[in-house]
Amino acid sequence: MFDKIIYISDQSANIKLKEDAEVAINLMNLHLIFEDKDKTILGEVDDLSDGVVKARFLGEIANGKLIGGVLRKPSLDAKIRVIKQEEIPLITGEDKTGYMPFGVSPYYNDFPVYLDVNNFFSNHFAIFGNSGSGKSCGISRIMQNMFEDERLFPYKSNILLFDSSGEYYNAFKDLSKINPNYNYRFITTNETEGKGEPLRLPIFLLNEADLTLLLQATEHSQLPIIERMLKLARIFASTDVDATKYKNHLIAKAIMTILYTNATAPNKRNEVFSILNSCSTEQFNLEAPVQGIGYVRKFRECFLIDSHGQFSESVLLTEYVSSFINDDYDNYEPNKKCYYTLEDLEKALNFTLISEGWLRNENTYGDSVTLKVRLHSLITSTNANFFKWEKGTYISLESYLSDLMISNGKKYQLVNINLDDVDDDFAKVITKIYSRLLFEFTKGLKERASIPFHIFVEEAHRYIQNDRDRFLLGYNIFERIAKEGRKYGLILGLITQRPVEMSDTVISQCSNFLIFKMNHPTDVDYIKKMVPNISDEIVDKQKSLQSGTCLAFGSAFKIPLIVKLKMPNPMPMSGNCDVVRIWDGHGGYVKEEPKQETVQTPSNVSVPSNTNVTQESPVPTNNIGQPNINVVNQVNGLESSINSVNQTPTSFGIPEQPIINNINEVNPNNSMPQGLNEIDNKINEVVNNNQNEMPKQEEQPKTTFNIGEQQGPQPVSNPILDALNSSTLMNNNGPISPIPEIDINNPNDTI
After folding, report:
1. Nearest to 413 by CA among 421, 422, 404
2. pTM value surpassing 0.70
């Protein structure tokens, strides 16, 4: 078949076909073997024209294994042949330990393709594709294959799947049916649906960076406030002796700062009382006794204002407060392992803003109030429930993650966190917090990468972006995981339809890619620039892919492969809407089309072959001799008669008087089919009421035409026009089409 190599470049070779060769197979995209005395090179056919085959070099076969990339090129006298059947596993992978079923190769008669488990799941990977190209089905199929592989048996896997639309619940809810040892956990932000468990993330596990994201801080000047707030929240939540002394020290310093300001006595008193409202102790509260010389005052009585506008007990107050100041406590660090709530954070924030004078500085006032308002808005919103910890006691990060993956005697291999019920900004924060917690946990393990975690992010372009994290915090958690997480056993799996909206750093660190069909030129160009080791030929291949077929390449694959994936069973809830079924007003009843009777023509009359001669059916009439015209299906230029019906929209946006053609003929029982939804039942009820309350023929109102304020003679009443404008006529015999034009000024005009 092949004659000789006529041209060799760094990446390809041109091969001349023999003149008498009969090409019995389709060579396009098939693989060729170049055999020399000391090397064997694998190539792939890219082009075939004028008896010349262009093949691109893919790798070298050495010791029965395929090594990607080519350093040595074949010689001009190398022998060329098509790859043999027994050599295909060199490309598609082998059915052995360490490999799992992946899909089939459409180029080799659905030859099975196997995935290198270690090289795929120990590196970051990305799945790209247009909406409807098969991304959700692809990741579902991959994980179902993984759990169905008895040889692999991933009992100790720890996968967190962040789902933006709740579509994976259906695909994995019966995971235990594959093997009783497998368990699937569904955690959701929707607490009213009654499906799964509510999301609970203890607020005391969040650090300064997490709170910065949660409160949507935008300026560096807000970071010290958040750090101080978090430190005070931990102090206020502690009950040991040192913590109490430190509280008194903080309160005393704050009060002394206020007393020495230029504010009026009433304003000073208000600020002091606000501090005590945020944090109080046995020594500092409004009813605390203050011992004077021979008398005792309550602490609040020390703030009585005399006739000079000063505190009447200013000396006693100053001596009492200053006695609790101890400069040794300035470097006190509270215990970070303590329980506190969002409300405790708010008290700590108020204390911080007042005691540190943030609200008295016009340069920091705006940033301070912004944090205060956002924290209070969070506390009063439904999102506050996600940060409550009903147990009421502190739990460590290790224990929390352990409870997340092991609970009620079950080991959960897959934890699906559904973020469908919250907005994108809040969902992004939740995803980042969980990722940061996992990164901290895996990095702190004594034995590196001993407990691998996988973070799969659906619609990753919503959460993994080039945002302001790097500007505010100095890092983005996803970028840090992409660069450092692999060595700690924390792996990212990104599923997106818009890679151009994602972080460049994260994509550049992915080692494996599954690219389904993508057409948007911006995304295609972005993939060319950002994805490592991708050629123009690979990018061009994905443009012609069918749904459910992907271009797979990376460290887990010997060479770039076109792979067709089996449909998952069960399917994720990511399919298209069945518009035909939902729109169907017949409820499943199909109306038969009327049969047309062919007119018999004499044998001596020639009829053109393209002419359909039929016998016209008589125009149906109603009981008063007028044409029975159905006002619903008027076509051929007539204005829709729906406008002539007095329709009042319901709360669903559906008219109270739906126009349904021949309801009696379609459904002999004069009722809509049972088992429909609430909207269909409302339509059914309204239709039945309209038919029962239909006015008699003689009660039809006459139609008049008034344009603006012009007055003139009234047009002559026409029975045909009256019938057309009536909303009460129903046609039992179907619509009449076409409708002839009617001269409304001619009272004698008839059909």
Report:
1. 404
2. yes
